[in-house]
Amino acid sequence: MKILIVDDNEDAKIILTRTLKHHEHSVESASNGVEALSVVKIFSPQLIISDVMMPEMDGFQLCRELKTDPSLQKIPFVFYSASYVDPQDERLAASMGASRFIVKPLGGEAFLRVINEVIEEYKEGRLPLPEKPGEEESILLRRHETRLTDKLTKKEKELKDREERFIYLVHHDPLTDLPNRRLLMDRVGQAIKQADRDETPLSFLFIDLDRFKFINDAVGHEMGDRLLAAVARRLKGCVRGVNTVSRLMGDEFAILLSPPSDMQHTVAISQKILAAMSQPLTLDGRDFIISASIGISLYPTDGRNGETLLNRAKRAVYRVKEQGRNGYRFYSEEMNLQSGERIVLQSELRRALNREEFRVYYQPQVDLITGKIFGMEALVRWQHPERGFLSPAAFIPLAEEMNLIVPLGEWVLRTACRQTKAWLDAGFSELRIAVNLSTRQFQHRELSELVGNVLKETNLDPKYLDLEITETITMQDVEKSIVIMNQLSDLGVEFSVDDFGTGYSSLSYLKRFPLNTLKIDRSFVKGLSEDHDAEAITTAIIAMAHNLHLKVIAEGVESKEQLKFLRANRCDAMQGFYFSRPLPPKDFVALLEEEKHLEF
Ligand code: C2E
Ligand code: MG
Ligand code: MG
């Protein structure tokens, strides 16, 4: 098949092209709708796979152009989008005559399955036809600046447009396109009826951005407006389409979680919002960190109508602000107590460092040419007196929230460096230690000073230290990150990108950072030898990394087949249960002593 890929993201294009070529398709690509239209003419694709959000002309506009052109409308059109898809967008795509709407990850097995279905349908001559847009669709269509296809005379059309626009404006906030307070209250009324009928609870979230006034004053109103619009999109991305996200005024938003929405669900959504907000927003190349405070009221306990629910949720927000912002609270104290388990864990975590309850385990990293151990990754564990052995996933995020990650991270670094020095002195030569850094540590002012001091104090040559960072770390404050990394790099310290493939950054973007190694995330390694597409992605990542002179370590290798595939595709090193689990120091040293290595 001749397939055209339309995406503004270079890496996505490369990965998808490789995957499809691997499946014997002929592939061309374009970076936006405008480019796609000209490629269509030369290449005559038999299938178009397109991203939604693109500069110049987005996926919807492109689909519209093609599906209204009799000579092109027979080409099946498939949308794909970021992990979240608004059901409205899906409906819009279907009404335009798109064959499918696929959610990333790109090029995975499921992705290919859907593409094959579409190809089959195409071969059988089955193709969805575009519908005449309905009322809701037409609003969406206009938002995507596409033409209406109704046959009204110009004047009638103008009138109808004005009327629709009016109805729309009465119910929406023009800046963010979100329902306004009026429509929100309307929907709260409906939701209350439904909650009564089904006897289910309902939650109301009031969201106030932290210190937005300062940001607004600092960057100017125009930029401030764009930030608000971006925040609105983020909020929408956090809930399913049946819930109402609304902008009340200024930097105040509200979310109505349709019934049934119990407390647990509400907490999960609140945490999701806070997490989404903690990611920097990039506008015109500048990063902005905007946090939010969330107040929650519940129906029927906190109030029996929209206005009361709103007022009580607002009151809860004041409490969040008093307690330092960037958090959530229920209006009722009882509800706050129930989510208090976290607080207990927090205080235990705070004491754990002094009580020496943390341990560092070491997982060997093995060279795929020599088969020998060349280093190890330090992985922290918490030996909790009552709860037992806790994995980092259970406490690192909490430690990060509490800022405890800075002293904890320092302790891990010092322990790991001291241990490595001891092993080197014991005669195990050329052992390198990899230590994970969290975002907070990276933002901390004195990171390079701290690392320098620890190295001096433990007497470890900087060339043995490898710091693992994630893609998101480097995105927080690019210029600052580069400065800090260069300082450390000058000392001889090396950097790895951890969990590569799970974040949003592209390899070409990472070029700017002084990196030495790229660690392919477990999720890709897992699919090797089972799933051709994970294989294609892994091969593509290895090739791109080598192109940038980066060494590649595969994480989470569990089987001989995976190992074989990685070696055949020139992956440099591996880490995983197949060779060894993370081990306490005495077990790790036993591996060194018996000179355990990989046999090929
Ligand atoms: P990571 O840096 O990606 O570490 C690799 C994780 O994969 C470890 O999980 C390791 O035990 C696990 N793993 C290794 N080989 C295999 C395998 O073959 N199969 C499977 N299924 N898993 C494998 P762990 O120790 O639970 O650590 C989880 C994450 O916690 C780490 O992911 C890292 O992001 C974070 N972490 C661990 N220690 C520290 C630390 O000292 N500081 C910071 N900031 N984060 C840490
Ligand atoms: Mg790591
Ligand atoms: Mg990793």
Note down, in words, how this protein is organized.
The two termini are 39 Å apart. The chain has 25 helices and 21 strands. The chain is α/β, with parallel strands linked by helices. The protein folds into three domains: 2-155, Response regulator (Rossmann fold, 3-Layer(aba) Sandwich); 181-331, 2-Layer Sandwich (Alpha-Beta Plaits), CATH 3.30.70.270; 345-586, Alpha-Beta Barrel (TIM Barrel), CATH 3.20.20.450. Strands 13-14-16-17-18-19-20-21 form an eight-stranded mixed beta barrel, surrounded by four helices. The site of ligand C2E has 24 residues, from β14, α15, α16 and β18.
* DSSP summary, beta strand count: 21
Low-pLDDT runs = 145-152
Q: What about the largest sheet?
A: 8 strands, mixed, barrel
CATH class of the largest domain: Alpha Beta
Distance between the termini: 39 Å
Total domains: 3
Radius of gyration using CA atoms only: 27 Å
Q: Counting H and I runs of at least 4 residues, what is the number of helices?
A: 25
Q: Please state how the strands of the largest beta sheet are arranged side by side.
A: 13-14-16-17-18-19-20-21
SS strand fraction: 15-25%
